[in-house]
Amino acid sequence: LFGEKDKVIYEANLSWVNEVPAVFMICKKKDAKTNKKNYDEIDLFTEIMTPAKMSPNLVLMSECEELTDRFFTDKTFVEYYEKVEPYIEMIFFTDRRGFGKEKNALVASFDITRIKGNVEQVMNDMTVFTHIVIDLIGGSSLKAGYRKEAEVRRREYDAKKSRELAEKNAEEVKNKKEELKNQKMNKPLTREQ
Questions:
Q1: CA 192 to chain centre
Q2: 20 to 30 Å CA-CA from 32: which of 55, 70, 89, 94?
Q3: Which whole-number Å values give the CA distances from 50 to 7, 57, 157, 185, in the listed order?
Q4: Do β-strands 7-13 and 105-111 pair in parallel, antiparallel, or remain unpaired?
Q5: What pLDDT was estimated at residue 81?
Q6: Reduced to 3 states, what is the DSSP secondary structure of residue 16?
Q7: Degrees, nearest 5: CA angle 126-82-30
């Protein structure tokens, strides 16, 4: 009725992936701009990369080329990626925020309205693909040079966010003071006055 799509969304906290400072997203090309707006991490940390096996309808934005290469050189990943590629809405990993207390989160969203044929098999492929992504992230050992650069970027990002929050709080305090001042000035006169 409202043009909504049927989706399957996998969300996973990866508490054991503390050592992977990375952000990446695979999404439809037409959604890339919106996703950059909605996810600060994508906008600030990632660059567009174009692996050879990537569909022209999708875009990969990644902070870590090493991690991206690990995905697209893994035979099992490529095999299942090709099976689920027509249904991918978004595959998003960040070490910046999770769904609970863990920082690392993975979201895999698939559009199932276009499935033709054996729905059960495609759903199974989506589940297996998501687990492959989790395993590849968890098994990643990144170079020390990359880690240092990533940590510097994260410190700069956190400092920027802290400044923005402080500015926002100062602005709110200022607005409240002005509001109170205006209320006092516009206070109706009493009968005696």
A1: 62
A2: 70
A3: 26, 11, 26, 62
A4: antiparallel
A5: 92
A6: coil
A7: 85
Max Cα-Cα span within the chain: 87
| DSSP structure class, residue 20 | -
**Number of residues in the chain:** 193
| pLDDT tens-digit series, residues 1-55 | 566 678 889 998 877 655 678 888 999 999 889 988 888 888 888 888 888 888 8
Angle at the Cα of 56 (from 51 to 60), degrees rounded to 5?
45
Position of tokens 């909605």? 38
Question: What string of DSSP letters covers 83-147?
Answer: HHGGGEEEEEEESS--SSS-S-EEEEEEE-TT--S-HHHHHHHHHHHHHHHHHHHHT----HHHH
Cβ within 8 Å of residue 12, ≥6 positions away: 105, 106, 130, 134
DSSP H or E segment with residue 7 = strand 7-13
Under DSSP, is residue 153 helix (H, G, I), strand (E, B) or coil? helix
- Calculate the alpha carbon distances from 5 to 29, 99, 110, 161 in Å: 18, 23, 10, 34
47 three-state secondary structure: strand
